[in-house]
Amino acid sequence: MVLLVLSAYLLVVLGVGLFGHRLFRGTGEDYFLASRSIGPVVLLMTLLGTNMTAFTLLGASGEAYRRGVIVFALMGSSTAIIVPFLFYYLGIRSWKLGKRHGYVTQVQLVRDRFGSDGLGALLFVVAVALMLPYLLIGVKGGGDALNVLTGGLGAGLPPWVGSLAVCAVTYVYVSYGGMRSTAWVNALQTTVFLLFGIAAYAAVVSQFGGIGAAMGRLRAEYAEMASFGTDRFAFLQMGSFLLLPLCTGAFPHLYSHWLSARSARSFRLAIVAYPVLVAAIWFPSVTLGAIGRLQFAPPLDGPILVKLIVANTGEILAGCLAAGVFAAIMSSLDSQILALGAMFTQDIVRHYGFDGKLREERQVWFGRVFVLAFLGLAFLCSLVASQSIFALGTWALTGFAGLLPMLAATLFWPRATARGAAASIMTVVVLWAGLFWDSLSVEGAYSVAGTGLMPVALIVPAATLALVLGSLGRQARSQR
Amino acid sequence: MPGSHPRWPLLFLLLLAGGFENFWLWGEDWLLLGIPVNLAYHVGLCLAGAGLLAAVVRWGWPDDADD
Question: Looking at the domain assignment, is residue A465 inside a domain?
Answer without folding.
Answer: no
